[in-house]
Amino acid sequence: MGFNDVKEKLYDLTADMNRTNALIERSDMSARNKQTLFSFRDWLISRQLSLLRVKKYLMFARTITQNSEKDLIDYTKADIDSVMTKIRLCGRYKPASINDFATTFKVMFRFIDGLDDGEQSPRTKHLRQKKPQSSLRREDLLTDDDVNKLISAASGLKDGLMYSTIFGVLYETGCRPGEIRGIMLRDVVKNTHGYRINVDGKTGKRVVFAIVSAPMLEKWINAHAFREMPDTPLFYYMTKGEPRFITHPAFSKTIKLLSTRVLGRAITPYLFRHSRLTQYVLKKVPEGVIRKAVGHAPQSRALSTYTHLVDEDVENEMFAMSGIDVEQKKVENTFVVKTCPKCSAAVASHESICSCGNILNGIVMAVRENENDNRFEKMEQKMAEMMQALSNVAASQQKNIMVGGMDISASGCQPLNGGEFIPNSEWRNQKDKLKFSSVQ
Predict the structure, then answer these.
(1) Mean pLDDT for back-to-back runs of 10 residues, the chain (440 residues)
(2) CATH of domain 138-312
(3) Is 291 exposed, middle or buried (0-12, 13-18, 19+ CB in 10 A)?
(4) Whole-angstrom Cα distance, residue 281 to residue 294?
(5) pTM above 0.85, yes or no
(6) What is the largest CA-CA distance in the chain?
């Protein structure tokens, strides 16, 4: 199953394409425009474009027809400029979407004018696409502690183990969210230090490694209901009795709701990737290694998005020029693999107790010791209360006072301190209560 096949299953593109066709058919655009868009669709598919890309072009083209009463094939250069102006000034679209409208114009009029690939229509040749500036800030990125909090909180969800594993693998590998959702069971292979995962992305196949997240991944695979079926999605939901890839909307919604509750802000699935890539740049990992690890094409300039987030060098240099001696900050990595000193098992980064029961975190150990101290205090208090109760019973139920020569055994009583007596049955009850209390 190739990347496009997986992608079509991930996004259910066949059904999506049918819905797109129906939207165009039911729209109030002219019959000529409908015919143009359907012919444009067939032209795109014949050039082996993915259904996701075809759908995207059709949706942008549909919006274009809503901004002009003319038929597409009759558009002039001025008509195209007028539509682009409306789109840009309406305030509904981000810079990236405005670029997509320009791209759709270029591709669609290459088809309408019957041009070969690479040629541009005179009607769209003048259109320019401006690379949008990244709005990502360093403060927006996830830290190791943030990820550990999300993983811990995810365990309380309905599919807690699955989502905990997704968060760990997504962060450690720096994969695109769609690549993680598209992993099949057969793509995951156990090795010496964790798991080797084959992912298929837009730049082709590559291998990523799960080491820190390996303990979570192992638990999830062992709990996977279809672990004996290698062509089943690694992460799935059930529909009509069969496992299906997690949908992007459901995935995004889960992350948004959980992060709002745990971190106090809503995040997107892509923030895991952005945060990991920034860490690579911060730690001065060679560019070639980063590109290969995260699936960037050799000519890609995407890494420049992250270099502006790493400004410590500039900041420290400016302080030094101002005569200020700045102590280098050392950030402790907390998203790391842990090994239990007792049984040598690998323990997930967010966990503090090994499966063997050994406590790995000093804070947790202190809490446990404090809990034990409190338990002993409660036991002592309980014993004191029981002794007081026994004394009260003895005082209220005294029936006999020892007098000379009385046969104590015959009276069915037992002596207490001070020569007072209580019935044998009451004495046995009090002794039993004391024994039970001491066991507790």
Answers:
(1) 55 80 93 96 92 92 91 95 95 92 96 91 92 79 94 90 95 93 94 92 88 93 94 91 89 95 95 92 85 83 73 68 67 73 73 73 45 60 74 61 44 48 53 49
(2) 1.10.443.10
(3) middle
(4) 12
(5) no
(6) 131
